[in-house]
Design brief:
The chain folds into 2 domains: 3-64, no CATH class; 76-172, no CATH class. It has helices at residues 3-15, 28-45, 50-64, 163-172; strands spanning 79-83, 86-89, 95-98, 102-105, 109-113, 118-119, 122-124, 130-132, 135-136, 146-152, 158-160. α1 packs antiparallel against α2 (28-45). By secondary structure, it is an alpha+beta fold. The chain contains 4 helices and 11 strands; from the N terminus they run αααβββββββββββα. A 5-stranded antiparallel β-sheet has the order 1-2-3-4-9, with no helix packed on it. A hairpin with a 3-residue loop joins β3 (95-98) and β4. Helices cover 31% and strands 23% of the residues.
């Protein structure tokens, strides 16, 4: 058995999983261990070096999560019509295009509330600024999600825990936010 498999089994045990050689229910924890160990067995048989291992893992992770390996081009063959004038990108299903709105990414900004909830879409900040988590994109486009920490106020508006998080996100998407109403 490879060192990688032994390492993974020890890590599962530390995490609290029941080892596969012990009696356990045939539940999610057992299946997760079996699935991951199977993937690691294939990976260890491939004989990767440090460099090729990192490259392979990076590409595998993107593909397993249905993420593109190269920037989206916005060309016609990347789109599928899903409704009246609305199109969805075939390479990243979170990118849409509408005739009147243009192309946008729905996971550009994910709002993370203090109580642990997350959501996308519009929020209204304490100063009245409306910020849309669905940001416009220009091509070529590499999808990037920013997680912005927010505090919900009694008024139903939100306060930014760190305004620099929003500034960085909007700069990436070509917007400017200086702490004032947009």
């Amino acid at each position: 058995m490879s060192n990688l498999i032994e390492y993974a089994k020890r890590e599962f045990k530390i995490l609290g999983y029941i080892p596969l050689d012990q009696e356990q229910k045939n539940g999610l924890n057992k299946r997760i261990q079996e699935n991951i160990l199977e993937l690691l067995e294939v990976f260890s048989k491939q004989g990767h070096s440090g460099m090729s291992a990192s490259y392979c893992i990076s590409m595998f992770e993107k593909l397993a999560l249905f993420k593109p390996l190269t920037p989206l081009t916005g060309e016609d063959d990347e789109w599928e019509e899903i409704g009246d004038g609305e199109h969805q990108n075939k390479r990243d299903s979170a990118v849409f295009k509408e005739e009147h709105k243009g192309a946008y990414y729905i996971y550009a900004i994910v709002w993370q509330a203090e109580q642990g909830g997350i959501f996308t879409g519009f929020i209204e900040l304490e100063d009245g600024a409306l910020i849309d988590g669905h940001q416009p994109v220009t091509f070529p486009f590499t999808p990037k999600t920013f997680h912005i920490d927010i505090i919900e106020l009694e008024s139903g508006r939100y306060k930014l825990k760190d305004p620099d998080q929003l500034k960085e996100a909007l700069e990436y998407y070509g917007e400017v936010y200086d702490g004032q109403k947009k």
